[in-house]
Amino acid sequence: MTAELVRGQNHPLSQMRLEIRVSAGVPVVAAATLSDDNGKARGIEWVAHPGVPALPGLEVSRQAAADHRLAVDLAAMPEAVHRVNVLIALPEGVGGPTRFGVVPAPSVAVTGLDGTGIVNFTLTGLDAESAVVALELYRRQGAWKVRAVGQGYAGGLAALLTDQGLSQAVELAGSIHEAVARGVARSVSAPPSRPVDADRSRRTAPSAPGPSPQATPDPVPPHGTQGPYGGHVPGSSFPAQPDTTAPQPAAPTDGSIDYTHPNRRHSTPPPPPPQAPPAPPGQPAAPVAGDAAGWSMDERLYNQVWGMFEDLARTTAAYRSAVDFAESRMEKELDQVLSDPRNRLGSSGDAEREAASAKRARLVEQARAVLDRDLAQLTAESEVVEYALPPAYARWDNPVWHAYRVPTESPMALRLGDLHLPESAPLRVPMLVRLPLERGLWIDSGPRTGLDGSFPDPGGLRHLAMETAVALAARLLAVHPVGEFAVHVIDPAGSGAQALGPLTRSGVPAAPPATGAAGVADVLGRLTQRVDLVQMALRGGAAESLPPGLDTAQQLLIVNDFPHGFDDRAVNQLRYLADEGPSVGVHLLMVADREDAAAYGPLLDPLWRSLMRLTPAPDDHLADPWVGHAWTYEPSLVPPGSEVLHRVLAQVAAARTKYT
């Protein structure tokens, strides 16, 4: 049960990994300071803010917004830290309000990673203040507690940071507001709000959504950070843990499928999602894009897509179970008939067999009618949702790309392709994974038998695999803010030059594709060194001590035709990047045929198992986490003849030139 705190009240914390959710009626800056046992911050390196959003065990938002999520891992806090202060401030220089007295009272909620509410605190009584210490998490006798503070400062962030013991408070406050102002100047306006119908509500159950689909032919160890609520520093939230003890919501009683994502719970109610107008009597309500629980439209759409995926998995499982039951019942009845020798021949036996077969057909027909009803509603929802998706979730032929602008905030997820089942082939559900990627991707360019029994041309399949990699890399570049994502390419023999054309011609990659043994060694050496430096800085709590020239953006390494051109040292470096890179923002995208690496024997098995396998052509190698269906995966490719990829990459390149 969520505790409602008042100023000065404290509450014990039983969890070490938390989310702190800030809700305000206007954009605010969320920040946090770390304090020692004397309540003082030891320097600007103990302040997390939009310019430096991640510290050990702590992450804040990179922009000003009305809703924020701060990720906190108290177990990862340095021993010298005894207090975490959560700060809220009104941004300066952007034309917004200058004091909290003229805006709705902000509220701060502390929750578990599964959304379980711990405490909530509404900051009432503020007037001339423009910055406030909302909460503090503090150690007491080896345990952590949370206290509602609500201490406001009319002098703004500078006065607040000065009170935290920072000698460079004025300069730091100025740099924070300057960073926020630059972001606001490039921001895109939020989508318009939609009418709310109180008669149509969505269910929100406690347990976390299932993880991303997992490859069935190549089982891998659990990787919770691949789930819908996965990820950790830098630039992410901590992975959610499922709550399997909470009761499940009741099924709908009006005969329609409830296509809402059922596994989301909020301690503080999020803004109400848009909902459809009342449906005519006897008919299900029309689907609405974003009609799911969430703190932003992107999160609502994300939860809605995962709800569609889960509902399609379960309604198909129900149909298959019904068909299996009908088959087993018919076989049982036939066994009973044939057990009597008198019924094995003659009209009496034929009649019994026909009756059993007719009963089976009737049961299957009833099950198919229910499946068709559910598929019709899910299809209607898919058609509405697809054209409301943001670029990170949208197909390349979605009109949203025609209005593309370089974003100012990183998305919460990315579309890797589409998924469908044999019973519902026309219905495609987007395959979304959380960002930042916590697991590398492997696009399998090896030969295989197509789903239709055909054998694709191996050369064409390798080219298609590289096109798939380029499309994914372009999407990652397009959906991240300027300077927050970089791409490197290793193409030892230059065989992928044609497919890499859109990337290389745009000038977006950090350097031309590396070729030859020397190029491979250079790229791997630089990225390995980056991983080592960032890991040492994070473990030592000295993120500010990184070399000035180090690129702190997330890095994507595309590797073509592995293991050609790789010696033993390069192979070990690649395995190191696959294992250690994601935690510090270095991600791997390999285009390879596993059979080509057979000469290495079992040496590379850990590498393959650490990557998520995708295919350049439709392939049913993925399984859902609920009932284990074999889902057909199709990559998200640019339509033939479309110029959308070139236009998007050109805008990304122009934005980099302008803002760097």
Which tags fit this structure?
single chain, 660 residues, alpha+beta, 5-stranded antiparallel β-sheet, 10 helices
Give a short overview.
The chain is an alpha+beta fold and 660 residues long.
| Count of extended strands | 22
Structure class = alpha+beta
* End-to-end CA span: 48 Å
Name the quaternary structure: single chain
Assign an overall shape. globular
Percentage of β-strand residues: 15-25%
Mean pLDDT: 80
Architecture overview:
The protein is 29% helix and 21% strand. The protein has 660 residues and is an alpha+beta fold. The strands form three sheets. Strands 1, 2, 3, 4, 5, 6, 7, 8, 9, 10, 11 and 12 form a twelve-stranded mixed beta sheet that branches. A five-stranded antiparallel beta sheet has the order 13-21-22-14-15. The protein has a five-stranded parallel beta sheet with strand order 17-18-19-16-20, with helices on both faces. The longest helix has 42 residues, at 297-338. 44% of the residues are buried.
Topology, pairings included?
Layout: E1 3-5, E2 10-12, E3 17-35, E4 47-48, E5 54-55, E6 58-59, E7 65-73, E8 83-89, E9 107-112, E10 117-122, E11 131-140, E12 143-153, H1 156-163, H2 169-185, E13 214-215, H3 297-338, H4 347-386, E14 413-420, E15 429-434, E16 441-444, H5 458-479, E17 485-490, H6 501-506, H7 516-539, E18 554-562, H8 568-580, E19 586-592, H9 605-609, E20 612-614, E21 619-623, E22 630-635, H10 644-659
Parallel strand pairs: 1-10, 16-19, 16-20, 17-18, 18-19
Antiparallel strand pairs: 2-12, 3-4, 3-7, 3-8, 3-9, 5-6, 6-7, 8-11, 9-10, 11-12, 13-21, 14-15, 14-22, 21-22
Helix pairs in contact: 1-2, 3-4, 5-10, 7-8
